[in-house]
Amino acid sequence: MTKQTEMAVLQEMIVANEVCPELRRSATQLVMGAGSLDAKIVFIGEAPGKNEDEQGVPFVGVAGKFLNEMLTLAGMNRDEVYITNIVKYRPPNNRDPLPNEKQAFWPYLIRQLQIIDPLLVVTLGRHSMEYFLPGKSIGQIHGQPKRIQFGDKKIVIVPLYHPAAALYNGGMRQLLMDDFVSLPTILDAATRQ
Ligand code: URA
């Protein structure tokens, strides 16, 4: 099976298994992810917002534009990375995803990562970080690569601030941009490990 087929099957499973039926009813569509299935870096946000829900693509609103700018700053573009969210339906009124919603989607996120098999997983904000690095504080560890056991292999997690949180906060914005610029070096080190 190609990676494209595997991802399409996974998408069908989310619907067939009725993951978060209430969110599904209030959302326009499932926002699975976008980018290259051969990406070396996967970015994981929290959940689709209004624009993402309408277009079926993650990070296409204001936070997405900022994310695009930072990717450019780091010498990357959206086609060569993969971008997704932990929760794949828009929560009503853009509220934070609930713990049970994150829990329900977690196995599918894991499967998505197994299909793509990246070297680096970049979490955007605490909602996706807390599952990979439980009990950690983003203020203390943002930008620092952490090697974790993931199934039968090790992967590197880089926890970053969420672009929407950093957008209008001068200090955090600069920290996030600095962390982004260091991603190619972290990827390089992960490639040689
Ligand atoms: N914020 C997220 O976490 N994900 C999106 O897709 C858009 C905004």
Automatic annotation (TrEMBL):
Residues 32-181 form the Uracil-DNA glycosylase-like domain. GO terms for molecular function: 4 iron, 4 sulfur cluster binding; metal ion binding; uracil DNA N-glycosylase activity. The keyword Iron applies. SUPFAM superfamilies: Uracil-DNA glycosylase-like. Its EC number is 3.2.2.27. One of its GO terms (biological process) is DNA repair. It catalyses: Hydrolyzes single-stranded DNA or mismatched double-stranded DNA and polynucleotides, releasing free uracil. It holds the Pfam family UDG. The keyword Manganese does not apply. It is an enzyme of class 3 (hydrolase). Keywords: 4Fe-4S, DNA damage, DNA repair, Hydrolase, Iron, Iron-sulfur, Metal-binding. Gene3D superfamilies: Uracil-DNA glycosylase-like domain. It comes from the Bacteria. Coiled coil: none annotated. Belongs to the uracil-DNA glycosylase (UDG) superfamily. Type 4 (UDGa) family. This is Type-4 uracil-DNA glycosylase.
